[in-house]
Amino acid sequence: MSDPGPASDTPASAGVSEALAAPLWAVAEAVQDGVVCSDLRGTITLWMGGAETLFGWSSQEILGRSLAVLVPERLRSAYLAAFAHAAEGRRSDLVGAGVIEVEGLRRDGTAFPAELTLSRGSAHGQPFLVGIVRDISSRRSAEVELALARTRFRSAFEHAATGMTMTSPAGRFLAVNAAFCALVGRTQDDLSELAFSDITHPADQEDDLHHVTRMAAGEVDHVPIAKRYLRPGGEVVWVEGNVSLVRDEHGRPQHYLTQVIDVSERRRAASELERSNAELDQLAAVAAHDLNAPLRIVEGFLRLLEGRAGDALDADARRFVSEALGGARRMRDLIEALLGYARVGGDAVRREAVELGRVAAEAEGALAGAIRGRGVRVRVDALPTVRGDPALLRQVLQNLLGNAVIHADAVDPVVTVSARGTPEAWEIAVADNGPGVPDDLRATAFDLFARGEGGGTGLGLAICRRAVERHGGHIWIAEGTRGADLRFTLPR
Fold first, then answer.
1. Are residues 356 and 482 in the same domain?
2. Boundaries of each PAS domain copy (predicted)?
3. 380 shares a domain with 491
């Protein structure tokens, strides 16, 4: 339909009374949406608000023209038919239909998506149409981008080589991919009727609840996991991966996204290696026990010799006996350290709540003699409660504290035990104000039989490393600090 062109004698408020035009003008000027009025034939009589910016027509250019110029050519017939129905008082898909999405046309010929609210009114017996137009190009682009992002995510989710799931805050499966179905030996239909706890090994359910509770409370937004799933026949599948919590626009938990890989073969290999190591540890323990027996005999006879024939021995002989006894004591200490190292690797690691503050106090009490003897000031900051094996953690803190007591400053010895938290782990530090660890010893400090200037068995730090690693943490010597600053982590 052709544009009738401007009507030069049509005022800006034609068809609208002055009483109505004034408030309409004030309202329209206060909004950014385009406000357009026309008579029932579709002739534009009022052009206000953001209409000029939206369509590119000034009020002088547009007044008197047909509404058809604001609509793409292919839609004009339908729009004008709707206006005609409104003029006749018949039902229209445009007039009085509330907010509808339409396509507008700018003066430069570009089309854009818009929201239109078109109403019929009357002033002093003169009917008119008033439309409010809002450009929704940005929103439509965002919707398209969101749809593309959802499509990409869905494709990545469905075709990922790793097992992926979406579960509700209550733990029900909302979506699973093919890789996860293959991993747990169940179909998507099977899993849609289940919660993740239904296929989780009973021994891992407490850890799962702990992780979910922390995420829901906002402490962390994702956690690494290592757990077991159960296939329908009872077969155990070990997995490792990550769980993250997705929240809605109000910050409420929406769903959990889990990504896991099957590590059963790796676990089996690790278990076999652990079994082999346990056999070696047992062998070391037996050997150490068997070595202790003849050592006690040698030490006993040396003491008898020293006691009964001491006066008859010359100075060299007494020195020989003394050195032999010293060697026997060092051998006994080494054997005890070997037994300690074997015990760290032998038993399963217990997982229970451990108050590190109490453990540190027990370690300090066990070392009270050495602490008093050197006049060491020990400061223990607030320490957290962690999940772990109390016996192993006590051994770690006692070894590190004992090491720090030995190497603290000779004049004013100070040892500090402190902790700091990250979303994934607790970091514990035991530091002294001594000369520190020489650079050439840092790389091997945690190796078996690594000895510094303080002597010792060379197994204390090796035991610490083994115990910490069995908890899933790591231990190291911090850089850039005065004295020795040894730190280790424990997963939350």
1. yes
2. 27-73, 149-219
3. yes
